[in-house]
Design a protein that fits this description.
847 residues; alpha+beta; 7-stranded mixed sheet
Length: 847
């Protein structure tokens, strides 16, 4: 080892050695337990920043530690390389996505390698390459055959700036997640996946997962299962003509027990009956204006908690099937066509939203439920109403004809049965989850493999003609009118029908990037196979992912879609498990100067500059030491300098003594060790136990404590310095020092792998420390030699004493009575009784 710690000299050498020896190739140990650790792959929009790398270093620490523990580890990486950012950037600066993307990927790989990330690059995938998106098209065709893919007319979120459809998850506070433009609603034809067919399975599958509860909760809420009843409200005419005929309205409710209190009904602005029936009559203009306003308002904004309730009376009425009353029909902002039937019965006495709306527009409020077990139930609810509150809990029915006196649960069952028997309703289950619309009007995506023929209609592109590749960027005309860019290239669009040979046109849309990321984890298993998307034997070996790592912002987008996709692959026989990932670790956000680290805010830290200045190991140690993985991290230049000093201290000890001590015999037990030797060996093995526990994920498998593992290594380093290890003549013997430094190199290997290899090699270790077995700690060395007893006088704590672990009551009593503060409180008193609790406390009862 050189005298000075210069990581820039050390790190490239060991990165080269890992590559040459194929250190990170999975599948070399088929008899050993497998572990598939995967970080969510990045979009290669330019240089990586430390916010990205925090996630990757976490995965790398875990992967390296598991290799040491004897696992056959799969740890791949790829690039989510299609999508809007590259297309927008091309429009801005003229660099085509096909030219920009491979350069960005090459740079990202270089930065990842400089950070010492242990990826198996032979499995790399990049979604912009035709050999990847060919399989997107193949999956599309198989799902189309199965009815999982279909064409529909849909009301979609539309970004007028990006000229594209946005998924609900891509709309944030009514704005486009990419450019910040206000999102509007538009009706267009689109391709969609029937993810709703899997709603219940996706919901139940959450019970099998070890994921953070906030992620599980987000998915449960997004799937949004509601058990209730669907009830038909007959049409009851208009203001002008009470006897007019019209179509009945079907509403969905989870509280059919409150139906006797329904005093009005509400329909979504997007409901088809608005245009067909309820948008006509004396109030036609008012209704049309309100509907247009709703279409221009973000749905999330409309339904947000605390948002003002707005509505318009249609002039039409429907009939409550249980009371026979004619009630008014309104259109309101808080009802969406996507949920339930797009229509609700409104019970203002027992729903806060309905109550607020009724108060605003002067609609009747009835009490039909009151708390069970109260003689003043109706008076209690009436008092709540005066306070502006609805009574929303289950209770006992009141003013509900023959159902009066029944409990809510019983009433729900009986009323649903009556509706079904009378053929005006039924028990039903609804989900908030909507089918996944995935076709986009943009260039940089997977082309839809469909051809439209005047004679044969939509026809699948034959498998042997896949992939349908993108035309050159130079031929594209980007129109800011929403026209799909591919439709501007005649030589791409105009083809022969595969079925009849007649003139036909390709589909001009591309797939959303969520398709690319929905199954990439499975493609890593067969990245070089051009015959199948996923080899079943590889899927059986490696799936499910044992640990998936990424940001919590993907809770209901990517994480829901890839669970859906895996289920489809299971139905197709490609994989044998329903869930793609057993465990999920979500990392916190990296902040700098009080803001989230991002290129747009100009507050990123360039990894290249950091590595050039301090080395990769310093960056890795800081990222892992600054806090628990799930917590946000505030970037600190002082913290980086502290990590650098810690590694330099470790290196100094190795550099001073490695050559001299590498031939020394190491102790096999604590026998005969005293003084500095005993202190150092105990510290080394206690640290080994601690680090091993902290890097293993705890009982849940996701409770990693990287920061406390590093803190323990820092304490061990302090102990070495206390024992004179940084001096020419240390107090600790050569054998004990060699063992301590060897263990330190093995413990550092997951976190600071380059320095660990340098020390391991200098101390005479065989092969690479990255592949060396994780050592076992000496239980005798770890065992405590002393124990602390609390000392009480008449029940009050007066001191503490340390005694040998095996000390008996007499020894503890003697040590306690010798403690000065205890002596003061016993002075002049007589001890009447001694209470001794082994291993915990001793109490002198004195008077």
């Amino acid at each position: 080892m050189d005298e000075r710690y210069v990581p820039q000299n050390i790190e490239p050498r060991w990165q080269k050695a890992w590559t040459e020896q194929g250190a990170f190739t999975a599948g070399k140990q088929p008899g050993k337990p497998k572990f598939y650790v995967l970080e969510m792959f990045p979009y290669p929009s330019g240089s990586l920043h430390m916010g990205n790398l925090r996630c990757y270093v976490m995965g790398d620490v875990i992967a390296r530690h598991l290799r040491q523990k004897g696992h056959d580890v799969l740890h791949p990486m790829g690039f989510d390389a299609l999508g809007l950012p590259a297309e927008n950037a091309a429009l801005k600066d003229g660099v085509p996505p096909p030219e920009r993307t491979p350069k960005n990927i090459a740079n990202a790989r270089r930065q990842m390698d400089r950070m010492g990330l242990s990826y198996e690059w032979d499995r790399e995938v990049a979604t912009y390459r035709p050999d990847y998106y060919r399989w997107n098209q193949w999956f599309f065709l198989r799902m189309w055959e199965r009815g999982v893919v279909y064409r529909r007319q849909s009301s979609v979120n539309w970004c007028p700036s990006c000229n594209t459809v946005l998924a609900n998850e891509q709309v944030e506070d009514g704005k486009c997640w990419r450019c910040g433009s206000t999102v509007v609603t538009r009706e267009i034809p689109e391709w969609a996946f029937r993810i709703t067919n899997y709603a219940e399975d996706l919901l139940q599958g959450l019970n099998e997962l070890t994921w953070p509860e906030r992620i599980l909760g987000a998915q449960r809420n997004w799937i949004g299962k509601s058990v209730g009843a669907e009830v038909e409200f007959a049409y009851a005419g208009t203001d002008e003509d009470p006897n007019a005929r019209g179509q009945a309205l079907r509403v969905f409710t989870t509280r059919v027990d409150t139906i006797y209190g329904a005093t009005y009904a509400v329909i979504a602005a997007e409901h088809p009956l608005v245009a067909q029936q309820f948008g006509k009559g004396k109030r036609e203009g008012e209704v049309a204006a309100f509907v247009q306003k709703m279409r221009a308002t973000d749905k999330t904004e409309r339904t947000a908690e605390g948002a003002p309730k707005e509505g318009v009376f249609t002039g039409h009425y429907v009939k409550n099937p249980f009371t026979g009353e004619r009630i008014p029909l309104w259109i309101a902002n808080f009802v969406l066509a996507e949920y339930g039937t797009g229509a609700v019965m409104s019970v203002p006495g027992h729903d806060q939203r309905d109550f607020d709306f009724a108060k605003k527009y002067g609609l009747p409020i009835k009490i039909v439920i009151h708390p069970a077990g109260r003689s003043d139930g109706e008076a209690y609810v009436a008092a709540l109403h005066k306070e502006g509150k609805a009574f929303t809990e289950d209770g006992v029915l009141a003013n509900s004809k023959d159902m009066t006196g029944k409990g809510s649960a019983e009433a729900r069952e009986q009323l649903a049965e009556r509706a079904q028997a009378g053929d005006f309703g039924k028990k039903t289950v609804k989900y908030h989850l909507r089918d996944w619309g995935f076709s986009r009007q943009r260039y940089w995506g997977t082309p839809i493999p469909v051809i439209y023929c005047e004679k044969d209609g939509p026809v699948a592109v034959p498998d042997d003609q896949l992939p349908v590749t993108l035309p050159p960027w130079e031929k594209i005309t980007m129109k800011m009118t929403g026209t799909a860019p591919l439709r501007t290239v005649p030589e791409f669009m105009n083809v022969k029908c595969p079925r009849c040979g007649g003139p036909a046109q390709r589909d001009g849309e591309t797939m959303d990037t969520f398709v690319d990321s929905a199954w990439y984890y499975a493609r890593f298993l067969s990245a070089k196979n051009d015959k199948v998307a996923v080899e079943r034997k590889e899927a059986d070996r490696w799936l499910p992912i044992d640990l998936y790592i990424g940001g919590p912002e993907h809770a209901v987008g990517h994480l829901l879609y890839f669970r859906f996709w895996n289920r489809v692959m299971k139905e197709m026989g490609l994989v044998g498990v329903a869930e793609p990932a057993k465990r999920l670790l979500t990392q916190g956000i990296v902040y700098k100067d009080g803001a989230k680290m991002s290129k747009s805010k100009g507050n990123t830290v360039d990894p290249d500059t950091l590595v050039d200045t301090y080395g990769a190991d310093t960056a890795r140690v800081f990222l892992m030491f600054a806090g628990p993985p799930e917590k946000d991290l505030e970037w600190s230049d002082k913290g980086v300098e502290g990590a650098s000093r810690f590694l330099a201290r470790v290196y100094r000890v190795g550099a001073m003594h490695a050559e001299r001590i590498k031939g020394a015999a190491t102790p096999s037990s604590m026998a005969g060790l005293t003084g500095a030797d005993e202190m150092v060996r105990r510290a080394a093995h206690r640290t080994l136990k601690k680090v091993g526990e902290d890097l293993s994920g705890g009982a849940s498998g996701i409770d990693y404590q990287f920061n406390t593992a590093i803190a323990a290594l820092m304490e061990l380093t302090n102990t070495l310095y206390e024992a004179g290890a940084a001096e020419a003549q240390p107090k600790v013997s050569d054998g004990v020092l060699k063992e301590a430094l060897t263990l330190t190199s093995q413990m550092l290997a997951p976190v600071a792998p380059h320095l660990a290899e340098e020390m391991w090699n200098a101390l005479g270790g065989k092969g690479l420390v990255a592949l060396a077995d994780w050592p076992k700690f000496d239980a005798d060395a770890v065992a405590a030699q002393s124990i602390t007893y609390a000392v009480q006088v008449s029940g009050k704590l007066r001191g503490e004493v340390q005694v040998a672990v095996d000390a008996g009551e007499d020894a503890v009593k003697a040590a306690a009575q010798a403690e000065p503060n205890v002596q003061r409180h016993l002075e002049g008193k007589s001890i009447k009784k001694v209470v001794f609790v082994k291993g915990r406390l001793i109490n002198f009862v004195a008077v």
